[in-house]
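Case study 2.
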Amino acid sequence: MKNIKYLIFAVTVSILVSCDTEEYLNPLPDTAVAVDAFFQTDSDVLAGVIGIYDALQGVNENLISNIGDANRGVQFEHLLTEHRTDNTRNATLEGSKADFHRYTVNANNVESEDYYASMYEVIFRANNILNFIDFADAGNQARYTAEAKFLRAYAYFKLVRMFGDVPLLTTVVGPTDNEALFTRIPAVQVYAQIVADLQEAVNVLDNSSKSRASKAAAQGILAKVYLTQPSPNFSGAQQMCEAIINGGEFDLQSNYSDVFYSELNDEIIFAIQYETGNSVESQSFSSEFTSGGRRQGQEDGQNIVNDNLIADFELIGGNRTAVSYMTFPDATEVTKFLPDGSDVTTSPPTYGGSSRDAGNDYIALRYADVLLMHVEAIMAGGASTNSAAALNSFQEIRDRAGLTATVTNITKEDLLLERRVELAFENQRWFDLLRFGVADAVLSAHATEMGYVFDARKLLLPIPAREINISGGLLTQNPGY
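Prediction:
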């Protein structure tokens, strides 16, 4: 995180080192007294709040000998999202990372397990810091609370869409309270908590940061929650999107490349930051997105672009195409997140001196996504719309792509296609297919084309076997695993 350098060193030592690494969901450290002793001032509480972001950032895989040694945060998210769609795949069939694109993930998959644990680490840290808010200065307590709740909601939103019903923890509970720790709560209740947390963030936060929770970030994520929840709230989603649009604080970058290589630009609403060359603050997904590491024997080569996505780019990619991917003799790979120093004009391409310690930000929410959600909210589950407001938002995206023909009507298929191309490789396609109600049909057709085996039960990932074992069987498994 380039603008967030306060890591929760003391808190991390006090809370995490003493915990059994098997007990991912257990939010009570054995050394609770040490934690009480640490939180004494406003700066202590702020360090704890920043530590929640650190959990999202995750640990660069280069620093750990085994994946189970530390959580990767969002750095594995492309495997659980892009790879499970018709967008991308792994370059090889070897190892657990290749299970996602073939729909062969099982309950022992280490990357899925890591992601589940990472999101609960975010929730754990958020719940923990909420216990110590009173130590903060009175003028900061509401903001710190809202930030913690925003991040808790963000993590739960990831979990409920990928794993379905999950344990819902909003307070620190004891290590033997298995009923609270391991009882799966219906998704509708999880969504209700997510909405409540985000509404508080909307009411409290301002837009002074892009790398920390903000009012606009809460509005944008809440809009997506409203569109996704079991009973969609289309009018609420439209209201949230229009609050961002009418606020005038965000805009599309005129040059699509600048979205990814001019960090915290006007289009970015919320990003998780990394720092090039700093092993503690960097990420390795940029190198994993290329096949360059594979050529050098370092990486598998992930997010290799599928032919049907290339066909959609050829149809409506416009000037987004050259920024998004490039075709080499042995693969077509993502170029949105090239590490510093990359030169893809050479043969073979090179990826800089610190490709595995990359600093490219993880873009959690940007203005283009809000504009397209605005169209979706106005469409309200219908087959099409010719609403002037929807057309204006859609046209902005098309115009920036260099596709300036006037749009007079938008179908559901048009919108899903536009989102696919605009947001390719940004971990949105999986969630879009679910939200639009077409995941089963699209992925079944894709699996048939690619020779994979898919069924609708694969729309949820398995609850990690390790968690079920820790719970003594109280935590139940999703059907089909």
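The first helix runs from residue 9 to 17.
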